[in-house]
Design brief:
This protein has 379 residues and is mainly alpha-helical. 48% of the residues lie in helices and 12% in strands. It has 14 helices and eight strands. It has helices at 37-53, 66-78, 83-101, 111-124, 127-146, 173-182, 186-195, 199-203, 250-257, 283-304, 320-331, 336-343, 348-355, 360-376; strands at residues 3-9, 12-22, 28-34, 210-211, 216-219, 222-226, 229-233, 241-244. The strands form three sheets. It has a three-stranded antiparallel sheet with strand order 1-2-3, with helices on one face. Strands 4-5-8 form a three-stranded antiparallel sheet. A hairpin with a 2-residue loop joins strand 1 (3-9) and strand 2. Helix 2 (66-78) packs antiparallel against helix 3 and helix 7 packs across helix 11. The longest helix has 22 residues, at 283-304.
Amino acid sequence: MGSVHSYSVKADRKPRYMVMYRDPNNKQVMKRGFTRKIDAEQYLRSVEVSKDRGEYVDPADARATVGILGADWLSSRKAVLKPSAYRSLDSSWRVHVEPKWGAREIGSIRHSQVQSWVSSLSKSKSATTVLRAYGALAALLDVAVRDRRVARNVARGVTLPRKSGARKIYLTHQQVTRLADESAHPDLVYFLAYTGLRWGEATGLRLRNVNRAKRRVQVEENAVMVGTVIEIGTPKTHENRSVPYPAFLAPAIDAMCKGKREGDLLFGDGTLHMRLPNSRDGWFAAAVRRLVEADEKASAEAEERGEDPLPVFPRVTPHDLRHTAASLAISAGANVKAVQRMLGHASAAMTLDVYGELFDDDLDDVAEALDRARSESKC
């Protein structure tokens, strides 16, 4: 057991109290500054209970700063994260977390202070930015808890901003054809819109990944641009998958395979990965812009003739072709498990979370089927 002792301070005649005890390693520890003896005794009791439960935290360990611990933590995350994910984490740490918390001792951080920081960031930054910054601090403090530097993670339980899901755009078959006809790389547009592969997965395909007899591609690599460098890694879920492509794409894929070797890239010149086009002036954005401008002009002319305005081509990105593939597959009768496997989602639940709105018609079909069954049973 430890003990409580009184001592005096020259500047103040009132007594102070110190707690002396031995930690689990039998090291003598002293904590001073209590103004009331009852507070010192209560602290000593809490120490003894934490020792008995194996939850003891050495006060000296809690004096480590966020900046010092963060350097090691970031290094450990770099070893397990994909380059693109690590780049986002590192940027969030350098811009938002380290400047605010780097000099702070982890044991001095309070829940209310984290909440205030999150609330302040939310006023000027997007929910995604805030959640990334908060996530980095909270994850570091989780490690500190596991290392017994602090007893609990004070960052957990704060109120966080909600991400508003971006509106998904689904092209029709006709719109996909228009976009492909207007694009510098029509075969790639068709391929993305009818397979659901991510840009990096499609541009990372090699001839050895293409089974032309079964009209399937084996997704094994993901070519992601990190800064100005294309990093080659595994697919997003780290799992390979087989994805079918429709028969109308077979001639184009056969043509792309001609003159190339098994290890060459399917798209492009076979050697260099195709880069994601610039979102402002790249070939994809330029094609979309021409379609939008043409439709806006036609719609304006229709209104001048007293007719109803015409629909305008949506402002889509290459990733919207992935959404389009899901929409076209579902409208063609694919079930949620088939769409999950095609898109490479971790679970069918995730597919429903992302594309649940597209399965609403299935519920109507169930109700109609039940109605027909009851009628046929002559109840």
